[in-house]
Design goal:
single chain, about 500 residues, alpha+beta, Beta-lactamase, two-stranded antiparallel sheet, 15 helices, 12 strands, about 10% strand, globular
């Protein structure tokens, strides 16, 4: 059973090459967040900019980050924006201040602002059940369906989940905190039914146009949006393992089934060339299908296509290596079944190790861009850092919200820890120099963070197109710009969001 042993060795090699589990959503419960103090608030803007222009390129080179865009806010104004690196590691197009990034969960704060604008217009109420605004219920029947309010969705106290398609509540609304993506999908349905208009149109009318954010959109279908959006990047090892592990597991299972069947039909265990070819093709197709279906269904089609395209490349490379090896071995010595098989096994393992080594050396593999015609209220916003900074200034000192609604937005709606709360949309970090409004965003292949101190009018926006293996990059650059520590905010909020268990 040489094939069985080969498969076992290959699986062992893959396991040994597998990266350590990412910790982007695995903060330890009870983590103490340090005070976020804008130590550089008194420094001239020019000195901060000069320092960032020196720091960011070196830091990007050290962390192997493709592209970064930064916007600095001083005295309530955007005083500097700049881009570093490339939008795509293949095309090498430069990042500029006009480059758009996918900003993930920063979308939630924009959607929250839209809802608050509608509150001021009398179309929504903070404390009326959202289900009362719908002609047909969006949530499944439950004891909580008729009690979830706008206030609870915006403050992540609705009990709805995050990265899941389940619409079931985790706990009674208002009795806990759980960072919720499903809550904002629910809110989108309410906004569109109340107004009779799609979310993108509402965003243009109520946010982007009045604030002067011409380069922002919840979809990629608007003219000029997709071509100017940076490509996300992934470590090549991720799609490599995503394909190879299922492929060899499926190959092993098919082998176990096919060889006994061949024995029954032919009377011997030795598979013919047609059978071997059929097993390989079947394993390839069966391992590709789950990857594609899973990632498309989970809302990550770009990554799904990357897995498929990379898998086809790996399959072609392994096939060519196998053919080259067989030709070489057959010419070097007379073909004998045992000796030839041993050499072929060694050659294939060498080819596999080479491909894994190659994948490990490619930290920035561009993910294919995927059309986004339908907006995602909690995660599909594309924007420049300048536009995000403009929006952040509005959050800190609202011009288009009533004083009452603005006060509600910045009030402590959910207290997660002594130094961390949540408002109606943004997170709120408490410090000796006043509160900071903030939000982070992360996809598989984008990272971003925005934070502002309203009392000082001092803030920063950072967007990068790196993968989740380096989740600290955006926060570290923000840390450098402000002088305070940003990462503990994200760690603590993430830990509380994803490890919450309501008290009995």
């Amino acid at each position: 059973m040489i094939m069985h042993r080969v498969c076992a060795v290959m699986i062992l090699v893959l396991i040994l090459f597998a990266p350590a589990p990412s910790r982007q959503t695995a903060a330890m419960p009870g983590l103490e967040a340090g005070p976020v103090l804008p130590y550089r608030v008194a420094e001239p803007a020019g000195e901060i900019v000069a320092d960032l222009e020196r720091f960011i390129p070196d830091y990007m080179s050290q962390k192997r980050i493709p592209g970064t865009s930064v916007a600095l806010i001083r005295d309530g104004k955007v005083v500097w924006t700049d881009g570093f690196g490339v939008t795509n590691t293949i095309t090498r197009r430069r990042v500029t201040p006009e480059t758009l990034f996918e900003v993930a969960s920063n979308s939630k704060v924009v959607t929250a602002y839209i809802a608050l604008r509608l509150v001021d217009q009398g179309l929504l109420s903070l404390d009326e059940p959202l289900n009362s605004y719908l002609s047909e219920p969006w949530l499944p029947p439950s004891a909580y369906r008729d009690t979830i309010t706008l206030r609870q969705v915006l403050s992540h106290t609705s009990g709805l989940g995050h990265l899941t398609k389940s619409r079931e509540s985790r706990f009674p609304p208002g009795e806990g905190f759980f960072y919720s993506g499903i809550g904002f999908a629910y809110l989108r349905a309410v906004l569109e039914e109340v107004t009779g208009r799609p979310l993108e149109d509402l965003a243009q009318e109520l946010v982007f146009a009045p604030l002067g954010m011409p380069d922002s959109s919840f979809t990629s279908s608007r003219p000029g949006i997709a071509p100017r959006t940076a490509s996300g990047h992934l470590h090549a090892l991720a799609p490599t393992l995503m394909f190879l592990l299922p492929f060899f597991l499926v190959l092993f299972v098919i082998d176990l089934v096919a060889l006994p069947i061949n024995r029954l039909l032919t009377g011997h265990w030795r598979p013919g060339r047609r059978l071997i070819f059929g097993i390989l093709v079947a394993a390839l197709l069966l391992s590709l299908a789950p990857s594609l279906l899973f990632f498309v269904e989970s809302g990550m089609p770009a990554f799904g296509w990357l897995v498929v395209l990379w898998a086809l490349f790996l399959a072609a490379a392994l096939a060519l290596a196998a053919l080259a090896g067989r030709t070489l071995i057959s010419r070097l010595l007379p073909w004998r079944r045992v000796a030839g098989a041993v050499l072929m096994v060694g050659w294939c393992l060498l080819a596999l190790a080479g491909l894994l080594y190659l994948a490990a050396r490619i930290p920035n593999l561009p993910a294919p861009k995927w059309p986004q015609p339908q907006p995602d209220a909690g995660g599909s916003l594309r924007a420049t850092t300048s536009d995000l900074a403009t929006f952040l200034i509005e959050l800190s000192d609202p011009r288009y919200l009533s004083p009452e609604t603005a006060a509600q937005m910045q009030a402590y709606q959910a207290e997660l820890a002594p130094d961390l709360s949540w408002g109606l949309g943004p997170g709120i970090q408490h410090s000796g120099q006043g509160d900071a409004l903030w939000q982070w965003g992360q996809h598989l292949h984008f990272q971003s963070v925005m934070i502002i101190y309203p009392e000082q009018g001092f803030g920063v926006v950072v967007c990068t197109n790196n993968d989740l293996t380096r989740p600290e990059v955006a926060s570290e650059i923000a840390h450098r710009a402000l002088g305070g520590k940003i990462e503990p905010i994200m760690q603590q909020a993430t830990g509380l969001a994803y490890n919450y268990r309501p008290e009995e």
